[in-house]
Amino acid sequence: xxxxxxxxxxxxxxxxxxxxxxxxxxxxxxxxxxxxxxxxxxxxxxxxxxxxxxxxxxxxxxxxxxxxxxxxxxxxxxxxxxxxxxxxxxxxxxxxxxxxxxxxxxxxxxxxxxxxxxxxxxxxxxxxxxxxxxxxxxxxxxxxxxxxxxxxxxxxxxxxxxxxxxxxxxxxxxxxxxxxxxxxxxxxxxxxxxxxxxxxxxxxxxxxxxxxxxxxxxxxxxxxxxxxxxxxxxxxxxxxxxxxxxxxxxxxxxxxxxxxxxxxxxxxxxxxxxxxxxxxxxxxxxxxxxxxxxxxxxxxxxxxx
Length: 305
Fold this sequence. Notes:
By secondary structure, the chain is α+β, with helices and mostly antiparallel strands. The chain has helices at residues 7-17, 20-32, 37-44, 48-60, 93-96, 254-257, and strands spanning 2-4, 35-36, 64-68, 77-81, 86-88, 99-104, 109-115, 119-121, 146-149, 151-157, 166-178, 190-196, 199-206, 231-237, 242-244, 247-250, 266-271, 281-284, 295-303.
């Protein structure tokens, strides 16, 4: 998910979309899933040279992916849509004054139980050996920026430093996530369950483990046939229920959690043994994937009275 919080962030995207030709390209790709450059140019009745400029702008903005078809004649480039949501979430100064924000590093979990295939790495190297769960307790894990496992959970302690005599009326958590397949597989669904203080908030099904192109921030040493990027997901718990990217996934409300300035807050991401799709979980930090962020948490608060 692409989240835009200021008009300045929105301007480059709006410029890219402010073209009839580029909107036609996106429509063609949504209808056909994947097309080569010649097919797109023919459908739009434009030259390949003119098309290349539009394709570069769409790719830079994150709307499409471009790959070489090494099996095709002339090493033709294949273009596919990136099916992500764009959330425009402008906040006013009044709205943000009662928010405590925190970033949690991927390796700063406080509890875990994971099963292979699994692993953990910093932006410089693997931590230990892959598929050896012992390394999830290695001291170097605090520097980790990516972790993955087939089933099990990791749990984080959410810093709670809202002012005294305040209660939490909304929690917002965003993270870049994907499934975990042996190698990579873009069609590899996984049911990921989210919990706060052992209360299940709901589930989101990740569509796959993406490796069709290198993540924008994924380091150069990372293996090309391993997890490259995920989808940026936004989890919100408020008075109305629990939501992922604006779509309600359960009726659990912030009132049921009863959180205030004294509350300990644990956040768990889990792939259950009995899930319909046991497809694993990958969590990307700021130096991996397509989004330069760790696990971001916002605690909205108001007076307890």
